[in-house]
């Protein structure tokens, strides 16, 4: 009687082995299980599960490709011996949606060899991670054809791995860490975040990888729009390590000849950039001595604010344009001066400078629209600029004493213009090169980031981010990137929630309000409860509630998932709110 259970067990094993040896007709698209993600990478690099079919080998190989430790050792386990030794994947990574399929090839791509299978992976690419660690959003179909061969031990292994890594989104976010590498605005000491991704393992080298990003300079899309205070010949003398007392030691070389002020700014760059990967004190050394005399160890609270120029002060509640006049979002009252009292301008749109002292308006005049700029509450000077349409103005901050900055708008959807203040107080328009953006479509919205380094643009109903590159002779909107193209459309308005995050209003019933990082890696829809679609305007700022306008009035929320609450002053259905900037 004892023999019978053993016989059943043996038969079960044989059936399982036979089933695993066969190649299924198709692997249906499935979502990567969330509970499998976020596990620490095993430094011992375990072997693949035994007796996987060819389709599963390809699926597991793609997921294992997200583990960069030990030269992608986890992914190499799914390759045959020759391919495993020869594979040198490039530095560009393609990130695909979690739902993808692996199917046997058909037609001419099939093979008559029973020990070989051509497997086709089909998925949706979300974008690429470039060599500099910056993600570029680009939604496009992805198809890989991989030859899988049965080895002498009966296991299926890939013989022709792809030239670049391909990995699902959830596996990417489980193994890579998003960091903000900080640089400085072109003409002020305002820090500008550059979103980058570095391998999360091994943990001991994470801080060093972030410092390496700073030494290499800004990402390609932000080059020319920011300053890196670390000189080109700066480097680290050995590795970034943890001292016995717990401080993170960054041993710099090549910075000793910098002025004391520049060395303080370098300290700010490094300490702010490291705050997302360590809570340790940061010990900054230059050729073995403190980078800043008398200040060896740093924590973020040691630094002054380097975003004061990029964030409206608490005493600026914001404004709203309604029925041709400008009112306060704080108490609902009409503002002083001709823009609010109705005796002066018929206001189409407006923008308040970040310090609150200046107001730019687009007014209706003689059947056209015209730009005016002046001190808040006073008469505004007319700019020699008019068109059938003009986008709502947007301010670029400067570090000048009067904070006047520049005012930008787009005329007739085609001409981006910045108005500059002259010594006599007038404003002179100059054209901005926006050729790359205009290839996407006419521009209906343009919002400069409050640090002045980027612009969020709605062109042809799509949301883009571009860098503002300034030379002595020109200003260019360079390297525009469409965010969530193919997923996000019908965009009607956008604003900067923070230096690296946007909120947008769309005509899409399923996601009328969304939050999106400036690299477009993810898209978070807001709750739609209480909104009366469509939403036609939106405003946001650091530390402020988001305000949207629909046909019923104004609504506020602090983040996604929150139910929209009525604004204390609704103003009716044609209101257009805006915070300074």
TrEMBL record:
Q: Does the keyword Cell membrane apply?
A: no
Q: Where is the GerMN domain?
A: 207-295
| Alphabetized SMART domains for the sequence | Germane (SM00909)
Q: Which UniProt keywords apply?
A: Signal
Nucleotide-binding among keywords: no
> Which N-terminal residues, if any, form the signal peptide?
1-17
Q: Which SUPFAM superfamilies match?
A: 3-carboxy-cis,cis-mucoante lactonizing enzyme
State the protein's name. Answer: LpqB family beta-propeller domain-containing protein
The source organism is Amycolatopsis thermalba
Q: Organism classification, top ranks?
A: Bacteria, Bacillati, Actinomycetota, Actinomycetes, Pseudonocardiales
């Amino acid at each position: 009687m004892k023999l019978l259970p053993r016989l059943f067990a043996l038969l079960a094993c044989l059936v399982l082995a036979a089933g695993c040896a066969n190649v299924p007709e198709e692997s249906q698209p499935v979502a990567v299980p969330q509970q499998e993600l976020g596990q620490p990478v095993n430094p011992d690099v375990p072997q693949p599960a035994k007796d996987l079919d060819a389709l599963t080998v390809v699926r597991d190989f793609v997921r294992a490709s997200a583990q960069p430790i030990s030269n992608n050792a986890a992914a190499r386990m799914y390759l045959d011996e020759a391919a495993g030794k020869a594979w040198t994947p490039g530095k560009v990574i393609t990130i695909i949606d979690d739902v993808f399929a692996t199917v046997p090839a058909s037609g001419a791509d099939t093979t008559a060899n029973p020990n070989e299978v051509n497997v086709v992976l089909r998925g949706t690419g979300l974008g690429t991670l470039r060599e500099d660690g910056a993600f570029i959003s680009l939604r496009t179909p992805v198809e890989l054809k991989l030859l899988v061969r049965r080895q002498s031990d009966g296991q299926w292994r890939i013989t022709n791995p792809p030239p670049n890594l391909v990995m699902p989104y959830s596996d990417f976010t489980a193994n890579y860490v998003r960091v903000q590498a900080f640089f400085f605005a072109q003409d002020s000491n305002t820090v500008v975040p550059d979103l980058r991704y570095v391998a999360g393992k091994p943990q001991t080298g994470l801080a060093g990888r972030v410092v390496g990003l700073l030494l290499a300079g800004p990402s390609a899309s932000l080059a020319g729009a920011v300053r890196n205070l670390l000189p080109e010949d700066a480097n680290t003398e050995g590795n970034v390590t943890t001292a016995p007392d717990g401080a993170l030691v960054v041993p710099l070389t090549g910075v000793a000849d910098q002025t004391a002020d520049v060395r303080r700014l370098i300290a700010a760059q490094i300490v702010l950039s490291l705050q997302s990967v360590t809570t340790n004190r940061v010990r900054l050394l230059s050729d073995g001595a403190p980078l800043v005399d008398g200040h060896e160890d740093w924590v973020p609270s040691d630094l002054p604010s380097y975003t004061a120029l990029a964030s409206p002060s608490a005493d600026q509640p914001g404004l709203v344009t309604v029925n041709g006049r400008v009112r306060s979002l704080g108490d609902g009252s009409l503002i002083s001066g001709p823009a609010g009292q109705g005796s002066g301008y018929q206001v189409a749109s407006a923008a308040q400078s970040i310090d609150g002292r200046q107001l730019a308006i687009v007014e209706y005049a003689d059947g056209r629209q015209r730009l005016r700029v002046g001190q808040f509450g006073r008469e505004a000077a007319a700019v020699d600029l008019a068109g059938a349409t003009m986008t709502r103005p947007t301010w670029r901050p400067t570090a000048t004493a009067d904070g006047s900055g520049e005012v930008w708008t787009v005329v007739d959807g085609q001409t981006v213009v910045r108005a500059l203040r002259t010594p006599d107080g007038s404003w002179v328009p100059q054209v901005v090169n926006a050729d790359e953006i205009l290839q996407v479509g006419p521009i209906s919205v343009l919002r400069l980031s409050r640090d002045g380094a980027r612009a969020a643009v709605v062109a042809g109903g799509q949301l883009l981010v571009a860098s503002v590159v300034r030379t002595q002779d020109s200003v260019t909107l360079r390297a525009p990137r469409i965010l969530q193209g193919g997923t996000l459309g019908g965009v009607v308005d956008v604003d900067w929630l923070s230096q690296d995050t946007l909120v947008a209003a769309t005509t899409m019933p399923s996601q009328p309000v969304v939050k999106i990082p400036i690299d477009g890696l993810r898209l978070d829809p807001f709750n739609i409860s209480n909104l009366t679609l469509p939403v036609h305007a939106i405003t946001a700022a650091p530390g402020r509630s988001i305000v949207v306008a629909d046909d019923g009035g104004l609504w506020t929320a602090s983040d996604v998932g929150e139910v929209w609450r009525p604004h204390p002053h609704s103003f009716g259905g044609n209101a257009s709110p805006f915070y300074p900037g």
